Amino acid sequence: MTLELAVVLPTLDERDNLAPLIARLDAALSPALGTGGWEAIVVDDDSGDGTADEARALALADPRVRVIHRIGRRGLASAAIEGMCATAAPFAAVMDADHQHDPALLPRMLDAVRGGSADIAVASRFASGASAAGLASERRERASGLANRLARKLLGVDLSDPMSGFFLLESWRLRALAPRLSGVGFKILLDILAVAPEPLRVHEEPLTFARRRSGTSKLDRAVAFEFLIGLYERSLGRFIPTRFALFGTVGAVGVAVHMAVLAIVLQVAAFVVAQSAAVFAAMTFNFWLNNWLTYRDRRLTGLAALLRGWLGFCATCAVGAIANVAVATFLVAQGLHWAMGAMAGIVIGAVWNYALSSRFVWGRYPA
């Protein structure tokens, strides 16, 4: 039997869901493709619950299961890209491993693309006959609907559910688009539709979005924020790198924190004490927010890692502050207006802090 379809399963703490999902894939795909016609590629972001070990155990018993264990990098979009590029199957699908996506839809999705009537098949929570009942709350359902409306309006995507995480396309098409995909955020479908040189023909398959079988949802506020990051990446990311834009935005908020703390402490202490307290507060705030948003895919966890990261961040920011003052002072001495000199110093300090923080605090190489 010739390998025809790869099902990519990005995972983070999904150990208990894997074995039942492989059984459901077998029940859905083997009658249509044969036992050797499909494979499951588990792309695990170094889960703390042993998901990768569970996937390896399943692979020992079933050669259709393969594992990509990623160390030092995270993100659903990049995991999906990596998994789809790793298969020799002519067709690739992406779906969640938490059982909210129904594997029984895969044969019909494959038929639509394989038959040539569509370039990509999408399982939609909002198509006629579908249901989004599995969303954890009405708030999440409203948020998902809003995100879909924004995506359609800003990116010109004519699709009922461009935020779907369950889709299927030809592998060669994904590999051709991969160099242009940002890998940022958690909804890779939106990126694929946006970068395609010509509009893709879409087949929508109604999906009854089920409740998660086991574990907890990864959709915290930071993940929701990544939707906006994805929109920025597609519109302005070519001019100002997304991660640097986030770093600069956090820094701007940090300036407000600095000034607020300075004003408060000045009421009871001398300027040098108030300034020191403000610097300490702003650096601590910036570290926390950058760890939560800017470097979400490299987020530091655990008390020891957070403490080391905070100390490293303070050290790099101290160097950036010196560079800031030195550049601003030099430019003002040359006759530049003090406001322009101050802004130049801030930019120099921000670039320095970004480069060193990316290298020494949140990862080996800046991104």
Q: Outline of this structure?
A:
With 367 residues, the protein is of the alpha/beta class. The chain has twelve helices and seven strands.
Any key phrases for this structure?
single chain, 367 residues, Spore Coat Polysaccharide Biosynthesis Protein SpsA, Chain A, 2 domains, 7-stranded mixed β-sheet, 54% helix
Question: Can you describe this structure?
Answer:
- The protein has 367 residues and is an alpha/beta fold.
- 54% of the residues lie in helices and 10% in strands.
- It folds into two domains: 5-235, Alpha-Beta Complex (Spore Coat Polysaccharide Biosynthesis Protein SpsA, Chain A); 242-360.
- The protein has helices at residues 15-33, 51-61, 76-85, 106-114, 138-155, 171-177, 188-195, 221-235, 242-265, 271-294, 303-333, 338-360; strands at residues 5-11, 38-44, 65-69, 91-94, 120-124, 167-170, 202-206.
- The protein has a seven-stranded mixed sheet with strand order 3-2-1-4-6-5-7, with helices on both faces.
- The mean pLDDT is 79.
